Each structure stands twice: as structure tokens, then as C-alpha cells.
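Hi R.,

As promised on Friday, here is the backbone we talked about, encoded as C-alpha cells. Could you run it through your design pipeline when you get a chance and send me back a sequence?
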């Protein structure tokens, strides 16, 4: 119980701070595992303005029928052009993805078509995302995590996890760049899990980072953590191969909790209390939130571990 009181006091201070400070940009308010304070990895106002303008332009192209995919309807990275289709498809005017004659550039057009052409193209256009054959978080599947990321996180953190989603410019403190390895690789799985499940408030950050524990089951959140781990220092792709196989700099941290060990990990269980308290309609010490729920594509941690062992 003592722990909860300390947490509550810390939250009070955080609220008072956010009410009084005008901008968070240059403050060293981000903390690494060893306690070092650093300036949070966020994009500059100018970068976010450019990203916002690009998004507006794409939305306009969509509504005027010049180009097909939009951020919301058929997502693509409006900065790199990944996932956007135009010439060379069988699409006709009015179809999602139709770019018209002389349509806008896309990565597909900018790079050479690989020799195994169609299958890669299909994977690219159907998934619009890299596909991994391994995981950095035991019991968690990055391929499933990325799907949730695309549903819930891109508006703020951006399609490429670079802190430049269409809403980013309006949010202060800014949504963070989630690919910055020297920052993210210093965060434990427990920290990432907690901020995603309980939102900023659960870890003494701003409530501008929403709590996702009412939408995502614990296993989903582990999968999202696995996806974030795969994207540490992933480069903006310039070839399809780079796009499909981003290289991560993340190395698992010794003794860190993961999806397989969470149930028996004391720190994790303590953190869960705080996570649950920040979720609407929960609290009073009842940990209802996170168990495995059957349905859809969801898999148990053990099944994910088996899948990884077999090489997917
Ligand atoms: C409404 C905008 C918004 C959405 C949507 C959003 N975030 Fe955030 N996120 C933020 C902001 C703002 C921060 C930084 C908070 C701060 O600086 O106090 C943040 C911080 C984070 C951090 C903390 C990194 C660190 O420094 O410890 C992680 C991880 C994160 N978000 C992941 C996600 C994931 C995963 C999703 C989707 C499930 C998501 N976010 C959706 C706004 C958002």
C-alpha cells in the first residue's frame, strides 16, 4: 500500500508541473534505466509542421481522386510513401490505391523492383509493414504487435514510429520518437509495458499518452512491446528489402521481465496495480484487465514462444 501512496504523491506533482510549465521541449525530463535525465526524443516543430502539411496534401489528393491510399483508409507512410500505389496496378479510378496516370511518387516507383517481384509487392501492399521471423521479447510476437500499433498509435507516434503522426503537432509534451535506440534500448520491458497499459499517468509522464489497457489485453501489449523492440534505430527504408527487414539495435536486458515470466514477477505484479488504477472502471485492487482472452488472432505467450522456436 505504501507504494501506492508514493505513486499518488508523484502523480500530484506531475499534474502540478504540467499545469505550470508552458513547453516541455527542452527540459531533461526523460529518464533512463540508471536514472540519468535526458531531453525526451521528440520531433521539432518544423518537422511536425512539414509532416502535417504532407498529411494534408495526401488527404487532399485522396478527396480529389488524384491518389488512393490515405492515412486513415488504407494507411501508408506519408513521409516515405511506403504503401502508396499508383501506376502499374490494375486499379481504376475510384478504387482505393488508384493513383492515376502520372500519379504521385511512391517507394515502389523509386526503387528497383526486386527479382521476386510480385510476392514482395503483395506482401508490401497487403501488409504495408515489415514482417519478422524472430522476437526480442520471449512469448511476444512483433507481427501481431505492429497491427495494434497501426490501429492505436500512429496518429501520434507516426507510421514509422518517428513521433510525427498527424496529431503530434497539437500535443505537448510531444509524442516520443519510439525508434531512438540509445533512449528506447535503455527502457526495461516493464517500463514500456506500464506506459502502454496504464498510460503516461501510470509512470509519472503526461496523460497525453493515453492508457490502452481498456482496449488491449496484456498479451496484445506484450506484442506491441516486441514490435517496438524490433524498430530500434530502424532506418527510413530506401529499398524494399530494408523496408521488409528493418535491423534493430535492441539487445534484451538481463533479468528483464517478459511475456513468459510476467505472471511470476513481483515488480510486474506491483506495477500492474498502478496500471489498473489508471484505467476507467477499474481499481479497488481488482486486477481484471490483463488476462489472456481467446478470440481473433490472439495467441497465448506459450504458443508464441513455440511459434518462434519453430521459426514461425
Ligand atoms: C494521443 C497521442 C498518443 C497516442 C495515440 C499514443 N501515444 Fe504514446 N505517447 C504520447 C505522448 C505525448 C508521450 C510522451 C508523454 C510525456 O512526454 O510525458 C508518449 C509516450 C509514449 C511512450 C513512452 C516512451 C518513454 O519515454 O518511456 C511509449 C512507449 C509510447 N508512448 C507508446 C505508445 C503506443 C504503443 C501507443 C499505441 C498503443 C501510443 N503510444 C499511443 C502520445 C500518444
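Update: got your reply. Pasting your designed sequence below so it's all in one thread:
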Amino acid at each position: 500500500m505504501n507504494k501506492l501512496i508514493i505513486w499518488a504523491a508523484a502523480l500530484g506533482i506531475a499534474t502540478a508541473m504540467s499545469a505550470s510549465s508552458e513547453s516541455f521541449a527542452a527540459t531533461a525530463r526523460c529518464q533512463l534505466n540508471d536514472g540519468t535525465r535526458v531531453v525526451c526524443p521528440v520531433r521539432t516543430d518544423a518537422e511536425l509542421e512539414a509532416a502535417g502539411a504532407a498529411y494534408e496534401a495526401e488527404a487532399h489528393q485522396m478527396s480529389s481522386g488524384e491518389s488512393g491510399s490515405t492515412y486513415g483508409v488504407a494507411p501508408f507512410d506519408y513521409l516515405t510513401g511506403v504503401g502508396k500505389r499508383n501506376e502499374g496496378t490494375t486499379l481504376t479510378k475510384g478504387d482505393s490505391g488508384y493513383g492515376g496516370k502520372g500519379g504521385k511518387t511512391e517507394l515502389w516507383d523509386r526503387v528497383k523492383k526486386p527479382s521476386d517481384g510480385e510476392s514482395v509487392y503483395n506482401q508490401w501492399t497487403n501488409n504495408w509493414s515489415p514482417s519478422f521471423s524472430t522476437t526480442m521479447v520471449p512469448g511476444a510476437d512483433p507481427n501481431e504487435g505492429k497491427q495494434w500499433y497501426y490501429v492505436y498509435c500512429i496518429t501520434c507516434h507516426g507510421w514509422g514510429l518517428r513521433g510525427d503522426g498527424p496529431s503530434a503537432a497539437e500535443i505537448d509534451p510531444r509524442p516520443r520518437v519510439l525508434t531512438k535506440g540509445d533512449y528506447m534500448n535503455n527502457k526495461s520491458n516493464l517500463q514500456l509495458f506500464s506506459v502502454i497499459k496504464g498510460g503516461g499517468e501510470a509512470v509519472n509522464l503526461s496523460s497525453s499518452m493515453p492508457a490502452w489497457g481498456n482496449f488491449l489485453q496484456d498479451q496484445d501489449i506484450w506484442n506491441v512491446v516486441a514490435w517496438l523492440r524490433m524498430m530500434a534505430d530502424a532506418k527510413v527504408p530506401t529499398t524494399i528489402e530494408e523496408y521488409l527487414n528493418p535491423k534493430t539495435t535492441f539487445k534484451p536486458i538481463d533479468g528483464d521481465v517478459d511475456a513468459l515470466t510476467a505472471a511470476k514477477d513481483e515488480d510486474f505484479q506491483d506495477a500492474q496495480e498502478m496500471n489498473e488504477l489508471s484505467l476507467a472502471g477499474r481499481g479497488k485492487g481488482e486486477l481484471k484487465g490483463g488476462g489472456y482472452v481467446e478470440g481473433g488472432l490472439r495467441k497465448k505467450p506459450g504458443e508464441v514462444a513455440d511459434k518462434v522456436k519453430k521459426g514461425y
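One thing I noticed while checking it: The chain has a mean pLDDT of 71.

Thanks again,
M.
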